[in-house]
Amino acid sequence: MKKLKYIFLLVSLLTLGACQRSQEERMGILKVYNWADYIDEDVLAEFPEWYKEQTGEDIEVIYQVFDINEVMLTKIERGHEDFDVVCPSEYIIERMMRKDMLLPINRDFGETPDYIPNLAPYIQDELNKMSQGEKKVTDYAVAYMWGTAGTLYNTEVVTEEEALECANLWNPKFNNKILMKDSYRDCYGLAIIYANKDRIEKGEVTVEQLMNDNSHESIAKAEEQLKLMKPNIAGWEADFGKEMMTKGKAWMNFTWSGDAVYAMDLAEEEDDKKLAFVIPKEGSTIWFDGWVMPKGANVTLAQDFVDFLCKPEIAAMNMDYIGYTSAIAGDELFDLVCENYGDEEGSLSHDLSYFFKGTLSDDRYTDGKAIVHTNEIGRQLTTQYPSLEETVRCGIMEDFGDRNQDVLEMWSVVKSNNISAFSYIMMGFLFIVAVFMFVSSLRRRIKKRRRMKLRK
């Protein structure tokens, strides 16, 4: 027994020494885990230079990407990777907080300045709707990008009024002309909103309440509606929707606002097509991605990296590169919006006071409002920065917890059941015709044999 104790002690010391060496070796290394194509590569190159200017220390950034929130979460939960900073969506941040997987943010940055105050108060308030008691989301996550889910449409074949009506995604007029984002949460939200559109109109229930209702009854309703939509669906897309829309192979695409901005640019540049984007008048989802530090992270480098991303000029670079909307407000970002999308002589005005409130210099306001003049509503400007009225009719979809599996199973059934009711009818009809032809052919053969026997 004593020998076993000594062996155990020796193994423990060796393990501890290896862990200590690992931590020491990683002192100058930052491991980042982010969505694919979700940061400007120049930003990744600039951070080590900026950090050395501030601290005099050399660092290395190891950057990896993921495509699905759940894949990222599983890797961290199982300890397969020791990332310092990751960028999950709001519902995964909520789940990680509940599982006590995150480290809180310390605003004492020491040698480097604090840029986190550049975050828009609007974003902070929205994220804190998911706080868990005294644990505020903004104490554990720094918002990065945000957006909505809505309908991207080809203006040559679909009117704005048609795109605004949720019901037209089910309209037989658009048979095989609609793309749906391959996202079970967004599709669930859309289906349950459509199923209860009359209740929303009467004020009996809010969009946010509906989207976060994961009862068996609601899941069944969503499944029913998604199955009814299937004859119209040309595909469940993760990324190919942009190309299909620009080539005119699909007429409407229920997608994310950032993808819509990219598709609009692509369609105009390569195919001279005009696409536009609207949030359904019945309502939709509003989402947020944010940076968090898993337990065991290299806190100093992780916090400085996230803080660096909150610099207005860095936020502008990232927003311009990926097409999504930064959570950073202030003069620099407002000027960027006006420069990219504004028109001083524009006949329309777009009020962004709700987002930039309290972050602008006095000379940026027009009659006390953050106004961007434009000639085009429904294009890049209003896609990246929807109006307050549009955001109000959207809701955050929270984590479903244990009921998440039920929604996933429903989603699997919907996607695997690729044959519509009409197709079943046609298959049945063809089967009957085939049986009839077989029986007729068999009868002819029997009659022919009988005649041959009689001749003999």
List keywords for this structure.
456 residues; alpha/beta; eight-stranded mixed β-sheet; 15 strands; 16% strand; globular; disordered N terminus; disordered C terminus
**Count of DSSP H/I helices:** 20
Assign a percent range to the helix content: 40-55%
**Rg from C-alpha positions?**
28 Å
Mean pLDDT: 88
Q: What distance separates the N and C termini? A: 100 Å
What characterizes the major β-sheet?
8 strands, mixed
Any chance you could write out the topology, listing elements then pairs?
Elements: H1 2-25, E1 29-35, H2 41-55, E2 60-66, H3 69-77, E3 85-86, H4 90-98, E4 102-103, H5 121-127, E5 142-154, H6 160-164, E6 178-181, H7 184-195, H8 197-202, H9 207-211, H10 216-229, E7 233-237, H11 241-246, E8 252-256, H12 257-270, E9 275-278, E10 284-291, E11 293-294, H13 299-309, H14 312-322, E12 325-326, H15 331-341, E13 348-351, H16 353-356, E14 371-374, H17 380-384, H18 388-392, E15 394-395, H19 404-416, H20 421-455
Parallel strand pairs: 1-2, 1-3, 6-7, 6-8, 10-15
Antiparallel strand pairs: 4-11, 5-8, 5-9, 5-10, 5-12, 13-14
What does this structure look like?
- Helices cover 48% and strands 16% of the residues.
- It is built from 20 helices and 15 strands.
- The protein has helices at 2-25, 41-55, 69-77, 90-98, 121-127, 160-164, 184-195, 197-202, 207-211, 216-229, 241-246, 257-270, 299-309, 312-322, 331-341, 353-356, 380-384, 388-392, 404-416, 421-455; strands spanning 29-35, 60-66, 85-86, 102-103, 142-154, 178-181, 233-237, 252-256, 275-278, 284-291, 293-294, 325-326, 348-351, 371-374, 394-395.
- The longest helix is centred in the C-terminal third of the chain and has 35 residues, at 421-455.
- Mean pLDDT is 88; it is low at 1-22, 418-427 and 450-456.
